[in-house]
Structure formats: C-alpha cells, structure tokens
Amino acid sequence: MVAALAIVLAACVPAPPAAPSSASEPAAATFVVPKPTEEPAARTTLTSVSFSRPDIERELKSYFELFYKARTLPRGGQFDPSALRALVEGPYADYTMPLFDRDIADAKAGRLLEVSFTDLAVGIEFWNQSDTAVANVTRTRVELRAGGTPARDTATRWLRSRALIRSATAAISPIRRPT
Questions:
Q1: Which of 23, 85, 114, 172 is the most exposed place for a label (fewest CB within 10 A)?
Q2: Residue 90 belongs to a domain with what CATH number?
Q3: In this structure, what DSSP letter does residue 73 have?
C-alpha cells in the first residue's frame, strides 16, 4: 500500500512582545510547538481500490459513501466522531470537522434528532490518470430537528483529491467550482 502524501505549509511569525514572567516560561522570541489537541485517528483505507485498473469515479463514490455514513445520525442514536476523523485530514478536515462538531453539539442538546444522506452522485471533472482528480459530489442531506419536519438540502461540493486511489485518507481539499 502506498501512503498518501500530504504537504502542510505553515508560517512562523515572531510572537508579540510578552509581559515579564517567571523564568519557567519560554522567552517571547522562542517558538513553541503546540501539543496536538487529540490523538491521531486510526485511518480508514479503501479495500476496493485497484492499482492496475483504477476506477477513480467508483473509488471516490466509495469514499463518500463511507464519509456520509459517518455523518449520519440515526433516530435515537449517536454520531461516531472517530469514524469521520478516520476518513479526513488536512484541509478537508479543517473544512468539515467544525460543521460536524456543530451537528454533534446540536444532537447532544436535543435540537438535532436525525440526519441522513441520499442521492449521492460523484462526477469527475479532471483526472490526470495518476494521483490528482477534481470531482463534484452531490448529495441530499435530510435532517430532522426538534419540533420540526424533515428538511432536505441538496448541494454539490467541488473537491480536489490527491492520491485518493491509494487510501481513504488522501488529501482532499474543498475548492471553488472550476470555470
């Protein structure tokens, strides 16, 4: 299995001047690497990928079926945050996890009762026959909130995928619709 490659860019800027403090704290000019806020997630890999005959549309659809299953809240059930964290990382995690965290908070507070996804469709706009694809993903989200009736929202997301055919945790980035 070939591991997906993700490049992370970070900008380091000098820290603002700090007020005088005890000797146990780092000096203002010292860069301190923050500790991770959570343990790394066990990654989910796609078992149906083919290295000799890749089918990027099928593989992306398989990935998003897993993704939307992880975003589903059955009536009377609970979300499984670890299932979604095992599927996303990098820019796509930065985009989707705050949305998911809001759903989790609403469910715990009793405001969100049920979420499901239907009518999943994946379209490939570009694929370089190697490791990069631009795709659109359309799905209908059906949610039930306390005191309401089921609401349906159909949306299309445009994404760039790097090396998705190698693992389900490849770099996926939300992008604006290509022109």
A1: 23
A2: 3.10.450.50
A3: B
Q: What is the secondary structure of 97-152 as a DSSP string?
A: HHHHHHHHHHHHTTSEEEEEEEEEEEEEEEE-SSSEEEEEEEEEEEEEETTS--EE
Which domain range does residue 67 map to? 56-175
User: Is 5 part of any domain?
Assistant: no
Domain count, the chain: 1
Tokens of 124: 């490939």
Of 116, 135, 128, the closest CA to residue 62 belongs to: 135
Give per-residue pLDDT as tens, 99-120. 999 999 999 999 999 999 999 9
pLDDT digits (tens, 9 = 90+) for 155-170: 998 887 765 444 444 4
pTM over 0.90: no
